[in-house]
Amino acid sequence: MRPGKIALFIFTVLGLLLLISVFSTSDRGVSSGIELPGFKIKYPTTSGFLQQEKAEANLLADSIVHAIEAVLPEEEFMPVIPDFSKIDTARLLRISWPEHKETYVNELHAYLESGRCRILHYGDSQLEGDRISGYLRNRLQGIYGGSGPGFLPIKQVYEQLAAEITVTGNWLRYAIFDPTQVKLADMNYGVYASVSRFTPIEIVSEDETKTEPLPLFTAGITIRPSGKSFSRLKQFNHIGLHYGNALVPVEVGVFVNGELIKESTLIADGAYHCFEIVTGSTPGEVHIELSGTISPDFYGLTLDGESGIQLDNIAMRGASGTIFSKMNASGF
Question: What one-character DSSP code corresponds to residue 193?
Answer without folding.
Answer: T
